[in-house]
Amino acid sequence: MTIRPILLHPDPRLKKTAARVDAITPEIETLAADMLETMYDAPGIGLAAPQIGISRRVIVMDCAGKEEEAQPVAMVNPEIVARSEETNTHEEGCLSIPEHYGDVTRPAEVTVRWTGLDGTVREAHFDGLWATCVQHEIDHLDGKLFIDHLGPLRRQMITRKMTKLKRERARA
Ligand code: NI
C-alpha cells in the first residue's frame, strides 16, 4: 500500500465529476487500499479518489470513535437513494482544505447504495457522523467541496487563504 499525495484546494481536479467504475479490477482494489492508507495517515475519517487526483467514483471512510475498533469502508459508485427530511448541522473539515472548518447543514440520515470491493451491491442506512461523512465524500465525486455549502464570502476567504498557503508551500 502506498500513501498518495492529497491535492489541495484550489485545484481544477477537485472540481471535476468523477467517472463511474465499470468493474472491480486489481487496479481499483489497489486504489481503495492506498486511499485507506492515505486517509489513516493524514489522519482523516474520509477520502475520495479525486482528492488524490484519480477521477473515479471511489470513496473510503472510517468514522469509528477513538475507543472503537477500526471500521474501514470502501465504496465504489456510491449513490444516495434516500434522504431524511430532518437535517443536521455539523462542523466539517476536509483533507484538501486543511485547518479550515465550517458548519454545513445536510440531511441527518441517508440510505446509500454502492458496490463493494467484492463486487456485490450493498445498501446501508447512515446517521450521525457517518451520514455527514458519506455525503461529504460523495460530493467530492461530483466536484463539490464543503465550502460550496457555505456563503460566498466565507468560501472566497478560505480560497484566498488556501491559494496563499499553496504558494508558500511551493516556495519552500
Ligand atoms: Ni473532503
Give the topology, please.
Elements: H1 26-41, E1 46-48, E2 58-61, E3 73-83, E4 87-92, E5 102-107, E6 110-115, E7 121-126, H2 128-141, H3 152-171
Antiparallel strand pairs: 1-2, 2-3, 3-6, 4-5, 6-7
Bound molecules: nickel (II) ion (NI).
Description:
The protein is of the alpha+beta class and 172 residues long. It has three helices and seven strands, in the order αβββββββαα. The chain has one domain: Peptide deformylase (Peptide Deformylase, Alpha-Beta Complex). A five-stranded antiparallel β-sheet has the order 1-2-3-6-7. It starts with 25 loop residues before the first helix and ends with a helix. The model has no long low-confidence stretch (mean pLDDT 97). The structure holds nickel (II) ion (NI). Nickel (II) ion binds next to helix 2.
Short structural description:
With 172 residues, the chain is α+β, with helices and mostly antiparallel strands. 29% of the residues lie in helices and 24% in strands.
The termini sit apart by 28 Å
Topology order in helix (H) and strand (E) letters:
HEEEEEEEHH
Backbone shape: globular
Average of pLDDT: 97
CATH class: Alpha Beta
**Pairing-aware structural class of the strands and helices?**
alpha+beta
Task: Name the descriptors.
single chain; 172 residues; alpha+beta; Peptide Deformylase; two-stranded antiparallel sheet; 3 helices; 24% strand; globular; binds nickel (II) ion
